[in-house]
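User: Here's a structure from my thesis project, written as structure tokens. My advisor, Dr. K., wants to see whether a designed sequence matches the one we expressed. Can you design one independently, without my sequence as a hint?
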């Protein structure tokens, strides 16, 4: 199974930049998009359908904000929209497709940038999602969370980390939150199971200098329950081609999707 996830910063613009043509060459079984900035009605339009895939989408109250989607080669048993708390559901930040023995979700966290309220909203989401993950551990199935978190976990996940310690995305409480999920709770960071090298970035500021000097951050993840760890076979972040400020993350699993 190949699973590709990408924060598109608006699906219309990403398609104009060639996203769908690229995806058709990647042989992915599941594609998870974050920050679609499109309503569910728009996601049903022919221009936003990907040939050979079923489309499922969750939008925000204001469709120009947030939104997530899943494209799947096989029709899932069930699709779940939202997590049951405002910071997720009001902004269309979570959708989950259930298959036999595994559930795959596309999730978008608030960036926390711009104001104290934006950062507080991010922390509320993180607290609520931690409680949700704790409950999920008791269920007898595996999960893959394709998540654009706007949090760089370790020093190797951000260029010039010393200068970024007071910036949302690399604050101590944010990094401690990922320590809790990946360390104490036992969830697996799929990319780091395969590749522990530095400068594996998935987001760059929108400037020529940032691109030229590779001033990146690793904000995008596939987080797994322990049962999926043994199935990991390969991982790649695609710095080029670019369809948004974020790089596509492709993970290969020794797993066959079924109903």
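Assistant: Designed independently from the structure alone:
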């Amino acid at each position: 199974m190949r699973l590709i996830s990408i924060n598109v910063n608006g699906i219309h613009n990403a398609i104009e930049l060639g996203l769908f043509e690229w995806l058709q060459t990647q042989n992915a079984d599941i594609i998870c998009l974050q920050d679609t900035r499109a309503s569910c009605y728009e996601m049903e339009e022919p221009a936003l359908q990907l040939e050979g895939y079923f489309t499922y989408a969750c939008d925000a109250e204001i469709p120009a904000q947030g939104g997530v989607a899943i494209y799947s080669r096989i029709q899932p048993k069930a699709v779940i929209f939202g997590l049951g708390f405002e910071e997720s559901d009001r902004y269309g930040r979570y959708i989950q497709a259930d298959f036999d023995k595994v559930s795959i979700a596309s999730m978008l966290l608030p960036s926390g940038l711009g104001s104290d309220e934006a950062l507080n909203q991010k922390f509320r989401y993180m607290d609520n999602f931690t409680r949700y993950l704790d409950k999920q551990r008791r269920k007898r199935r595996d999960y893959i969370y394709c998540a654009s978190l706007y949090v760089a976990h370790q020093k190797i996940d951000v260029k010039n980390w010393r200068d970024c310690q007071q910036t949302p995305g690399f604050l101590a409480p944010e990094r401690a939150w990922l320590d809790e999920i990946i360390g104490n709770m036992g969830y697996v960071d799929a990319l780091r199971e395969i590749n522990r090298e530095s400068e594996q970035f998935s987001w760059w500021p929108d400037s020529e200098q940032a691109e030229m000097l590779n001033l990146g951050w690793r904000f995008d993840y596939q987080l797994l329950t322990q049962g999926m760890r043994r199935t990991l076979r390969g991982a790649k972040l695609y710095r080029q081609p670019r369809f948004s400020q974020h790089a596509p993350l492709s993970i290969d699993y020794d797993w066959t999707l079924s109903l």
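When you compare it with your expressed construct, this may help: The CA atoms of residues 75 and 208 lie 41 Å apart.
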